[in-house]
Amino acid sequence: MTWKCLIFGNAARPKAKFKVWLQMQNMLLTVDRLNKWGIQVESKCSLCQREEETRDHLFVECDYTKTVMQKLMHWTQNQNIIAATWEQHVYELIKRAKGKTKEAQLFKRYILKGVWRRRELKQQQQSSHGRAKLEKKKHRAATTKQPWPREAGEEEASSSNNKVAMAARSWRRRSIEQQQ
């Protein structure tokens, strides 16, 4: 179990660590697994709408995932992960997540979160139940005169991205101060 460093010593919540464990075991509820169980759902990737959604596609091949990883690498001042297979991807993740540095902790916390949360938001928007919840939120925002985000789910995603960006900026600031 070479990927144990992604879970043990990780400052993320237990739910996030469990999802990383599911990801490594290929047990996340991706579309290909649901179809194998006889649950009929749209087989296209909910993020890029191009290929069948598998673990390998979702975390290695998907254009959206590549963009998220590129941003994460930029924030943590790392080189981008370029992997053709799942095994190469995991090897690169392990290499960057080892250690107790702030950079490694930040990396471990947001390795899965960015991709999986965005996928869940898109799926929620596409379902009728999700659209009903969205309309309810819009109505509540209109009656309480709160600003409503332009895109559904933008508010939740931006708050998560802001936390990552703030953590990355403070980490960078401290590392620059230490160098001087």
Describe this structure in words.
- By secondary structure, the protein is mainly α.
- It has one domain (2-179).
- Helices cover 63% and strands 0% of the residues.
- It contains 9 helices and no strands.
- The protein has helices spanning 14-24, 31-36, 55-61, 63-75, 86-97, 102-110, 113-126, 128-143, 154-179.
- The radius of gyration is 18 Å and the shape is globular.
- It starts with 13 loop residues before the first helix and ends with a helix.
- The relative contact order is 0.11.
- It comes from Nicotiana tabacum (Common tobacco).
- Residues 122-180 are annotated as: Disordered.
- Residues 2-67 form the Reverse transcriptase zinc-binding domain.
- It holds the Pfam family zf-RVT.
- This is Reverse transcriptase zinc-binding domain-containing protein.
**Sheet/helix structural class:** mainly alpha
Please tell me how large the radius of gyration is.
18 Å
Helix content percent band: 55-70%
Largest sheet: none
- In what range is the share of β-strand residues? under 5%
Number of strands: 0
Distance, first to last CA:
40 Å
Q: Specify the number of helices.
A: 9
Give, in order, the helices and strands: HHHHHHHHH
The average pLDDT is: 72
